[in-house]
Amino acid sequence: xxxxxxxxxxxxxxxxxxxxxxxxxxxxxxxxxxxxxxxxxxxxxxxxxxxxxxxxxxxxxxxxxxxxxxxxxxxxxxxxxxxxxxxxxxxxxxxxxxxxxxxxxxxxxxxxxxxxxxxxxxxxxxx
Amino acid sequence: xxxxxxxxxxxxxxxxxxxxxxxxxxxxxxxxxxxxxxxxxxxxxxxxxxxxxxxxxxxxxxxxxxxxxxxxxxxxxxxxxxxxxxxxxxxxxxxxxxxxxxxxxxxxxxxxxxxxxxxxxxxxxxxxxxxxxxxxxxxxxxxxxxxxxxxxxxxxxxxxxxxxxxxxxxxxxxxxxxxxxxxxxxxxxxxxxxxxxxxxxxxxxxxxxxxxxxxxxxxxxxxxxxxxxxxxxxxxxxxxxxxxxxxxxxxxxxxxxx
Lengths: 127, 258
Fold this sequence. Notes:
Chain A has helices at about 20-45, 50-60, 65-90, 100-125. By secondary structure, chain A is an all-alpha fold. In chain A, helix 1 crosses helix 3 and helix 3 runs antiparallel to helix 4 (about 100-125). Chain B is α/β, with parallel strands linked by helices. Chain B contains eight helices and eight strands. Chain B has helices spanning about 60-70, 130-140, 160-165, 180-185, 195-205, 210-220, 235, 245-255; strands at about 15-20, 25-35, 45-50, 90, 95-100, 110-115, 120-125, 125. In chain B, strand 4 and strand 5 (about 95-100) form a beta hairpin. In chain B, helix 5 (about 195-205) runs antiparallel to helix 6 (about 210-220) and helix 5 crosses helix 8.
């Protein structure tokens, strides 16, 4: 096909489904998690350079923004783990039905929120 | 890196507005993607007011009505008009489907019709599917047997073996699934796409075929097969209700379990 022919619109017009939305979220969250893990490792490394370095991050994480960050991290990890379980089932050949995929998708989303709340409560010594 | 926005010559402009002349009270606004290769201009979206009191039930009926009564230059593919040939595959209301079996009464508000996504447009609603057909050819969609033709015996298939093809042989290659797949949008030249992989699975799964191992080996490729990330847009869009995502999953499983 010649260069002058236009490309038909794609992302601009295509409707989102739950499955496609979760798929792209899974990807983004995966990349975010890599950065978070690196950050946590660096944080641990600062211990070698004395308590004061450790304290700087510690004190930023106890601010309101820091708490928001931690809760977000809880969500990204729980979402990624739950959706990865869904992927494992697909790899084993189950759950490809449109209806099943929709149900598992929604339950991953709800489950990740529940897990986040659970992590938060455990962190606050609620139980 | 994939380009997420449209190239400069593909940016969509506002097109003409065709006001209703029948004085009908039951009007539907239909927005249709237009591109004329002879003008050298960018594609545009024309809006047609269509009298729904005198129109058939399907989206294809609207398009035919526009072509007959309003603008004869509107170009689209169609043939059988009952979901068997796959010619009228297009993007209707944001989801790929066959215009001839999609009821317009299912769609509230304005009706948006675009060609199949991420294809080179030939004219108006016609996309260029050359790459897809080439990829289809590459999986050799025919029975390969050791017979020379002189044996004079039939290739028998039990009912159970035949049932394994259910849900795969029905594919009409309308390309709705492949052009709905974001992976296929970004890697369409290398990734085979759901339609072709479903066909590949159909031949791998055929008990009469003698080339199963070779077929599997050919398709086991980082780009050809594993660009599928189970986004499931394919299964969501298939107008025949088939499940390409499952077919691809089955190929992956076959390769993993040997």
